[in-house]
Amino acid sequence: MKARLFTTFAVFSCCAAIFAQAPAAAPASQAHASSIGFSYSLPTDWEVVDAQPSLPAVQQQVAKSATSEEEKKGVSCVQIALTARHGSPSSVIVAVALPFDCFGQSMTDKELPGFATGASEGLKQTFDLTSPMYGAYTLGSHSLWIERAKGTPKDSPSSLYTVEIACSIVKKGAVCWMAMAADDAGLQTFEHGLVTLDSDPPAALVPADAFAKKP
Fold first, then answer.
1. Nearest one of 118, 127, 145, 115 to 206, comparing CA atoms
2. Please, which of 46, 92, 109, 120 could form a disulfide with 84 given CB 3.0 to 4.6 Å?
3. Which range among 29-43, 158-172, 198-212 shows the weakest confidence by mean pLDDT?
4. Helix or strand or coil: residue 135?
5. How far apart are CA 2 and CA 87, in angstroms?
6. CB 93, CB 190: distance < 8 Å
7. pLDDT tens across 62-97, in order?
8. Which residues contact 62 (CB under 8 A, 6 or more apart)?
9. Single pTM value for the model
10. What is the spatial distance between Cα 74 and Cα 4, in angstroms, rounded to a whole number?
């Protein structure tokens, strides 16, 4: 488990760098599906960003600090399932997937808190996070872990965002959705986006009582 946790730190250090970027936008679409077994919907006025061209360079940079082959494997396997933005200043939403068939290991719900904590640790490479709140909830047959904090980009200390991370494990991989919300509308869009996990019916990603139960 410890090795997997360190791997997750490396994976999300990689993804945090993508999360903070603002590359060129592509035409928006509403539903975004991943091959590992989930989909997530956003309003059509959100701009979908093509982060794939910059991902290999970020992976190569993060891999240099990896201390094990498992960490390097995790970094090389990570997928950016969705990057989208809206408004000015922009709110940004990213969905990150770690396919088990590439990683060579699977995870269980017991390992979800450790995996999700790695997401937060990875984001600390790019953001100063304060006033964190944590929660745990279920959508259908799937468990989710969530964190909400105030976040200031290290390269823009005058900017303040709400940073929220929700993670789950599906049959074919692990996934985290991350929001850098510039305003309440951006946060509400992130939380109300419809998500489908494996064969469960669609549901809002973050229910109103998400922070009522502590992980």
1. 145
2. 46
3. 29-43
4. strand
5. 39
6. yes
7. 555 555 666 666 677 888 888 888 888 889 898 888
8. 10, 13, 14, 17, 75
9. 0.84
10. 9
